[in-house]
Hints:
With 231 residues, this protein is an alpha/beta fold. It is built from six helices and nine strands, in the order E-E-E-E-E-H-E-H-E-H-H-E-H-E-H. The strands form three sheets. A five-stranded parallel β-sheet has the order 6-5-7-8-9, sandwiched between helices. A two-stranded antiparallel ribbon has the order 1-2.
Amino acid sequence: MKIQCSNCQAVFNVPDAKIPEGRSFRATCSKCNRSITVAPQHTGSSGSKETVIGMDASLSEVSDAPTAIAADLDVTSAYDSPLEVLEEGAMSALVCVDEPGRLKAVKEALEELNYYSSVASSVKEALSKLRYNQYDLVMLDEEFCGEVAENNTILRYLQPMPMTTRRSIFLMLISNQVKTLDNLMAFAKSVNAVINTDDIQKVKLVLERSMADHRRFYKVYKDTLQGLGAF
C-alpha cells in the first residue's frame, strides 16, 4: 500500500504483509525524521488504512536468532526497532561497524554511492533490523561490538538464511585477517566480498568493483527468472 508522511508529505510503498494487525505502530520518517504514531489497523475494516510507516519489535522476537553474546539478548528488556521505509527504488544499507575510522569511511562511501545508511549500535539492534527490514547491502565488521571473527553473531544469522532471501543482499565483510577481494575466503565465509581493514579508505572503489562483478554473475540467472515470471 502507498502511505504518506503527514509532516513532509513523502510517499512510500509498504508491503501489506509488514503491517501488523490490532496494535499501534511508531516509527520515524526517513525523510524528515518526524516521529509518527498510528492507531491499530484491522484486516477487513472499511475505508483506507491510515498512514503507516513502521512497527515495533520487542527484543523477545529476535531472541531465537543464533548469538554468541547471550547478555546482548536479554529478553527481560524491550527494544524498539521501527520498520525503515524508503521511497520506491531507493537503495538501503545496514552498517554494522563501530570502529570510528572505519565507520566514517563506510558512511562517506555509501553516501557517495547514494545509499540510505542505517547504522546499528549493537548486535541486538542489527538482528532486529535484519528481521524486519530488507537491505540491499550489509557492511559487517567481523569484530563488531567486540565479537571475534570466528564466531560473529550477525554472520551466523545470515549464513543459513534461505537463498531466495540471501541472494538479494550483498554482504561485505570487513576483516583484519583476510585480504581484500579474496574470493576464496569470501566463499568460505558465505559473504559476497571482503575488504581488509588496511584498505578501508578504498571501500568505495572496492564496493563498486565487487558489486559490478556480482551483478554480472547473476545477470543471466535473474534474466531467466524474469522471463519465467518468477522474479
